[in-house]
C-alpha cells in the first residue's frame, strides 16, 4: 500500500510541475530565438548566452516526461497487483485478509 501511495504522489508532483513549467519554457525559447534573429554584435552574444540554460531546462522537462511515463506504468502494474490480491484474498490489512 505504501509503494502505491509513493508512486501516486511522485507521479502527481512531476505531472503538475511539468504542466506548470513547460509552457513558460517553450515561450522563453521562442522569444530567445526571436531575439537571436533580431539582434547583432554584442547583444547577440548576450542573447545566445541565455540560450543554453533554456535548452538544459527543455531537456530536463523531457527527462521528467520519461520519468512520468515510467511511474505511470509502475502505477498501472501496482493497481493490477492490488486488484488481483483483493480478488484472491491474499491481501492482509490490519491482521485480516481482505
Notes on the protein architecture:
With 98 residues, the chain is mainly alpha-helical. It has one domain. The chain has helices at residues 2-38, 42-49, 51-88, and strands at residues 92-93, 96-97. A two-stranded antiparallel sheet has the order 1-2. β1 (92-93) and β2 form a beta hairpin. The longest helix has 38 residues, at 51-88. The radius of gyration is 22 Å and the shape is rod-shaped. The chain crosses the membrane at residues 6-21, 70-96. Keywords: Membrane, Transmembrane, Transmembrane helix.
Topology, number of strands: 2
Report the order of strands and helices: HHHEE
Please summarize the sheet with the most strands: 2 strands, antiparallel
Work out the count of structural domains: 1
The proportion of residues in beta strands is: under 5%
Class from helix and strand fractions? mainly alpha
Terminal residue distance: 13 Å
Uncertain spans: none
Radius of gyration: 22 Å
Helix content: over 70%
Biggest sheet: strands side by side, in what order?
1-2
**Number of H/I helices:** 3
Mean pLDDT, to the nearest integer, reads 85
Dominant shape: rod-shaped
Amino acid at each position: 500500500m505504501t509503494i502505491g501511495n509513493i508512486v501516486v504522489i511522485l507521479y502527481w508532483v512531476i505531472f503538475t510541475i511539468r504542466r506548470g513549467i513547460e509552457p513558460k519554457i517553450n515561450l522563453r525559447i521562442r522569444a530567445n530565438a526571436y531575439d537571436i534573429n533580431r539582434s547583432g554584435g554584442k547583444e547577440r552574444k548576450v542573447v545566445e548566452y541565455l540560450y543554453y540554460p533554456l535548452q538544459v531546462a527543455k531537456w530536463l522537462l523531457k527527462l521528467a516526461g520519461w520519468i512520468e511515463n515510467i511511474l505511470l506504468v509502475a502505477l498501472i502494474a501496482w493497481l493490477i497487483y492490488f486488484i488481483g490480491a483483493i480478488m484472491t484474498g491474499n491481501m492482509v490489512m490490519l491482521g485480516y485478509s481482505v
